[in-house]
Amino acid sequence: MTKVVINTCYGGFALSEKAMLRLRELGLPEAQHGKFIGETYHNSEETIGTFCGFLHDTERNDPLLVQVVEELGDEANGKFSKLKVVEVDDDVKWEIDDYDGNEEVREVSRRWS
Questions:
Q1: Alpha-carbon gap, residue 56 to 88, rounded angstroms
Q2: Is the pLDDT score of 32 beyond 50?
Q3: What is the pairing mode between strands 2-7 and 83-88?
Q4: How do the domains of the chain map onto residue ranges?
Q5: What is the pLDDT of residues 65-99, one digit of tens each?
């Protein structure tokens, strides 16, 4: 089985600062590996979250990302996200589909237009 991290609420995929720091501890600094781009957003009172744009959906199965989300649970969530690890059969070619940030993993299908 392949483990994939998705966001299960409206708002968008985002990691908490704690999750970003844990990823760096595990050896995945964004500048060195280019796997994710993180930026922390603040309002006048608090940190809103660290929004991360992964370069390709397939990187959502990065073993370190999966590890961090499993380790931290809800503490891995950005302010407007609820992250979940889902399992996909190894023989399935998959993609992440989202509607207003609420994501699901779907099997890739062929299309013609």
A1: 17
A2: no
A3: antiparallel
A4: 2-107
A5: 999 999 999 999 987 889 999 999 999 999 999 99
